[in-house]
Amino acid sequence: MSKIENIVKVIKEIGADAVLITHSDSRLYASGFISSAGNVFITKNSDAYYLTDSRYLEAAGKELLSKGFMLVDTTSGYIPQINSLIEKHGVKSLIIEDKHITLHEYSTYRDNLSSELVLAGDRFDRLLSILSTEDRDALEKAETLASKALEQTLSVFRIGMTEKELEAELIYNMYMNGADDLSFKPEIISGANASMPHGNPTDKPIIAGDVLLMDFGLVKNGYWSDMSRTFAVSYATDELQRVYYTVLEAQNKAIDAWKVGMTGKELDAVARNHIMQSGIDGCYQHALGHGCGLLGSAPTHLANRFSDDIMETGNCMSFEPGIYQPGKLGCRIEDLVWLGHDGPQNLTHFPKNELIVLK
């Protein structure tokens, strides 16, 4: 099914006549068009409109007319144009994304739109968490670009570089490989700093004997990549090797176990139990993983100790178990994995099966 068809299906399931999509991530899902302003209006009969002002009309036309969207100029205001569409299509009940609007916005819609408002809850958020094979391929492309940027960054690594200097190299390479944006500020942490699961790069030099943990991602065409890799600098201690391969085994076990119908806590337990049974101190306290893909889809499903989220075909998850020992070291390995009809498919191809030692 197309994304418009998916949206129409939800409209009919809710029992409304149309939906007004206002949240940027839902708007991107519906249209594939990236802009900082706009609404999407879709009826139960699959009539699709993109409402935006003069800043985006020309660009929107080039991308959306061929997709079956009709454009509405809202330079003079959104409310009159939305009411015009309500009247044109006889919309008596209009779905709004209540989770993503302010009280002021809700009051404005309630007091000025000529239709009954129906609350969407999380129904459209859940759509974002189901990635088609085309979405999967686009996300894999973003992850591959990030992997290439990491490879280029490591090729210029020198012992004595600071965490911030290595971060700057990585950011440069991500943009040079076509990133539209960064998924988040990269986390480049080494030595004892690596025991902080989400530490910020500092002016600390990266020296021989350090562990180096790199967590980063880029955005390409609205798809958000995310990966983590752990390296040894100059040489790998026996302790780090034991930690690394325990984390790797935990991740692989969880990926292999992932299937439709599992809860988030069941999936998390696969990796967590393996680490705890190893006898190594420092088992991760964060989630095993989160949803990933289109911007904004990350919060829609989680795999942690408390999650009752049910895994579905088309979900994409990060798998990122770790071990963190304050004052000593930290290790995390993170891949993005898509759940298809034939089982899990790993979208991250940067090597991980051997602990890489940076000379």
Description:
- The structure is a single chain.
- The strands form six sheets. The chain has a six-stranded mixed β-sheet, with helices on both faces.
- Helix 7 (133-155) crosses helix 8 (163-176) and helix 9 runs antiparallel to helix 10 (264-278).
- The protein has ten helices and 20 strands.
- Strand 18 (335-340) and strand 19 form a beta hairpin.
- By secondary structure, it is an alpha+beta fold.
- The longest helix is centred in the middle third of the chain and has 23 residues, at 133-155.
Characterize the main sheet.
Answer: 6 strands, mixed
H/E topology pattern: HEHEEHEHEHEHHHEEEEEEHHEEEEEEEE
Distance between the termini: 50 Å
Helix proportion of residues, in percent? 25-40%
Count of individual beta strands: 20
Mean pLDDT: 95
Shape: elongated
Strand order of the largest sheet: 4-3-2-1-5-6
In DSSP terms (H or I, runs of 4 or more residues), the helix count works out at: 10
Return residue spans where pLDDT drops below 50 for at least 5 consecutive residues. none
Strand content: 15-25%
How many whole angstroms does the radius of gyration measure?
A: 23 Å
Structural class: alpha+beta
